């Protein structure tokens, strides 16, 4: 039976949120542990880092699905009863919001572009919840600073508000401690 | 004075708008209320402080102006404060100064406030004082 539960966890860089999220998934004892990765390699070091993580997870019994954009394409690859970790909202948003920048037409500059992707994301997350035992969504805290990139931060805030409202549980990670906010 | 505190785009204004009696409140965005207005909401203080620093106002004078504004508005007033002090040290000297001045000002305001509520993506957490809803409800009558 699908559990339909969603947990949101957010924290600073190296706060321990990924390890915490992985633990949640492994404790769910689902048929499969799915690592839905939105990270994208922009240089060699990152490519190696991603590959090393993918291999580590493989030996721990994870199935990795790499989906930097178009999260909906991962949906057909999920099976009923999976536990899914999506890592993470911030990289997905950067990939989608700036998709097309190489040709001078980033999504952020096109009216309605991100709105469409946002609607698709909500639908996809509902779809993932419908089949999965547990969905854990990981994100970052990047709002407690000067506004460096207003469209990005505005979108991230909007997405986080929605995720917290939709989730059964929401946690803020600080220095290895997960504070339950909901 | 009540403080609603948190990072940018976390739903602070939305939270305040949802409090009883706050929809009709007089809002001051990036400016200080000059006259006594019951139930004033002050937001975007960091923009006001930035403008003062750009105009060469020193920290002592700036703090005095803030204290005057608070004294005029007693007892029921809400200050929405945006946390901008948890990032990397800025390259721009004015931004560094703004962080320093704002950090010290926030400490002072937290000390004075009857209550402090932190908002994390729409979820309120009381950091100080009695429940904000209760106080506002009582005061709003």
From TrEMBL, chain A:
Pathway: Cofactor biosynthesis; adenosylcobalamin biosynthesis; adenosylcobalamin from cob(II)yrinate a,c-diamide: step 6/7; Cofactor biosynthesis; adenosylcobalamin biosynthesis; adenosylcobalamin from cob(II)yrinate a,c-diamide: step 5/7
GO aspect biological process, one term: cobalamin biosynthetic process
Active-site residues, as the UniProt record annotates them: 53 (gmp-histidine intermediate)
Alphabetical list of PANTHER family matching this protein: BIFUNCTIONAL ADENOSYLCOBALAMIN BIOSYNTHESIS PROTEIN COBU (PTHR34848:SF1), PTHR34848
GO molecular function: adenosylcobinamide kinase activity; ATP binding; cobinamide phosphate guanylyltransferase activity; GTP binding
Organism per entry: Planococcus koreensis
Keywords (A to Z) from UniProt: ATP-binding, Cobalamin biosynthesis, GTP-binding, Kinase, Nucleotide-binding, Nucleotidyltransferase, Transferase
Entry coiled-coil feature ranges: none
Name of the molecule in the record: Adenosylcobinamide kinase
Protein family (similarity comment): Belongs to the CobU/CobP family.
EC number: 2.7.1.156, 2.7.7.62
Gene3D superfamilies, A to Z: P-loop containing nucleotide triphosphate hydrolases
Residues that, per the record, bind GTP: 11-18, 37-39, 54-57, 66, 87
Reaction(s) this enzyme catalyzes, per UniProt: adenosylcob(III)inamide + GTP = adenosylcob(III)inamide phosphate + GDP + H(+); adenosylcob(III)inamide phosphate + GTP + H(+) = adenosylcob(III)inamide-GDP + diphosphate; adenosylcob(III)inamide + ATP = adenosylcob(III)inamide phosphate + ADP + H(+)
Function: Catalyzes ATP-dependent phosphorylation of adenosylcobinamide and addition of GMP to adenosylcobinamide phosphate.
TrEMBL record, chain B:
Domain of life: Bacteria
GO molecular function: adenosylcobinamide kinase activity; nucleotide binding; nucleotidyltransferase activity
Keyword Plastid: no
InterPro entries: CobU/CobP, P-loop_NTPase
GO BP terms, alphabetized: cobalamin biosynthetic process
Keywords, ordered alphabetically: Kinase, Nucleotidyltransferase, Transferase
Keyword Transport: no
Name the record gives this protein: Adenosyl cobinamide kinase/adenosyl cobinamide phosphate guanylyltransferase
Species name: Planococcus koreensis
Source taxonomy: Bacteria, Bacillati, Bacillota, Bacilli, Bacillales
């Amino acid at each position: 039976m699908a559990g339909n539960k969603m947990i949101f966890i957010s924290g600073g860089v190296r706060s321990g949120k990924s390890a915490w999220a992985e633990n949640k998934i492994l404790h769910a004892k689902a048929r499969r542990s799915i690592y839905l990765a939105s990270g994208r390699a922009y240089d060699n070091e990152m490519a190696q880092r991603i590959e090393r993580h993918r291999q580590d997870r493989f030996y721990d019994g994870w199935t990795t699905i790499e989906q930097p954009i178009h999260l909906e394409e991962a949906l057909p690859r999920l099976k009923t009863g999976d536990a899914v970790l999506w890592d993470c909202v911030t990289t997905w948003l950067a990939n989608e919001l700036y998709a097309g920048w190489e040709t001078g037409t980033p999504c952020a500059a096109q009216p309605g572009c991100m709105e469409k992707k946002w609607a698709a994301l909500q639908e996809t997350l509902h779809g993932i919840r419908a089949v999965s035992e547990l969905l854990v969504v990981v994100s970052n805290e990047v709002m407690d600073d000067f506004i460096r990139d207003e469209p990005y931060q505005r979108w991230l805030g909007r997405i986080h508000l929605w995720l917290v409202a939709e989730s059964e549980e929401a946690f803020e990670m600080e220095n290895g401690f997960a504070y339950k906010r909901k | 004075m009540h403080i609603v505190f948190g990072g940018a785009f976390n739903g602070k204004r939305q939270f305040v708008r949802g409090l009883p009696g706050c929809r009709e409140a007089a809002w001051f965005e990036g400016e200080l209320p000059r006259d006594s207005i019951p139930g004033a909401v002050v937001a975007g203080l960091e923009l006001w402080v930035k403008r003062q620093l750009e105009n060469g106002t020193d920290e002592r004078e700036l703090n005095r102006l803030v204290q005057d504004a608070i004294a005029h508005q007693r007892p029921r007033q809400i200050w929405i404060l945006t946390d901008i002090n948890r990032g990397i040290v800025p390259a721009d000297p004015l931004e560094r100064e703004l962080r320093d001045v704002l950090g010290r000002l926030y400490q002072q305001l937290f000390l004075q406030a009857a209550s402090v509520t932190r908002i994390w993506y729409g979820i309120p957490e009381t950091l100080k004082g009695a429940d904000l809803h209760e106080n506002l409800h009582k005061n709003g009558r």
